[in-house]
Every structure is written in structure tokens, then in C-alpha cells.
Amino acid sequence: MTSEPLQPVRAPARRTVVAAVGATGLAVALTACGGSDDTSSSSTGPQDNASPTDGGTGGGENAAAGSGGTVLTKTSDIPEGGGKVFADQGVVVTQPTAGQFKAFSSKCTHQGCAVKDISDGVITCPCHGSHFSATDGSVKKGPATQPLPAAKITVAGDEIKLA
Question: SS3 of 100, please?
Fold first, then answer.
């Protein structure tokens, strides 16, 4: 039996280690909070144009009994071409065109700041200036590189509910 000289093992880069630790922490947090990476569509009404979701929260004091969701607002409270941030629910609701309502996470995908302004079809993060499309959550201007995750809403009559 012959032994060969040992080759030095290269340590992973610091960024690799930090990213792995961050991903593990995120997975634990999502599991603890009931989130998931699975996507599903919402189609419960003629005006419901919600995109796929990465998980939502239900309940709350505004939940209507047996309605299956938390009432966020009235459709008339969401301006066409604009939107409204619901900080307590972590969601932003937009109305890109008349009668079309969309919802996304209000947490910027760059560094987690809450988005604030929605106008002219653009959702803006005040921390570093990222811009997202009010229609589909896609990045219009960085530094963010990932779109805002969609949230599941339903529109019934004049109410918008977080599903």
C-alpha cells in the first residue's frame, strides 16, 4: 500500500459561507412562519387578477366570518395606475389598469426595506431606489435583481381580501 502526498483543500469563499448560512436561516424562518416556495393561482372572481403567491397570511381583526380572507380595503381606495401599501399585512395592492388588482410582498428584494410609493405603474423602495412594475412585480430599476413576490388576493364586489 502506497500513500500519496495529501493535496491542500481549498476553503470555500467567505461569500459562499455567508450565502449558505443566510439561506439556511431563511429556510428556518419560512418554515417557522408557515411560508413556502410553492406557487398557486387565484381565480375566485371576474375581477380577481392576482398572480401566483409564495404564501400569505390570513386572519386578523378584519377577517369576515366564512369569507376565507382578511379584508384589506375597498376597490375604490386603490387608485388606477397606483396602489397602497398595507404594512401590517406586508403587502402592496396595485391597480395597473381599471378593474385589475394585483398584490405583492411589500418587502423589497434588495435588502428588505418596505416599499412606500406607488404611482404611474411603478412601486418604489425608498431605501436604495429600486423600482418594480405595479403590473407584475418585475424589477424596472435596480439595485434589486429579483421581482417582488406575488401575494394572493381576491376581489369580491367592492372588497379586496388577502387570501
Answer: strand
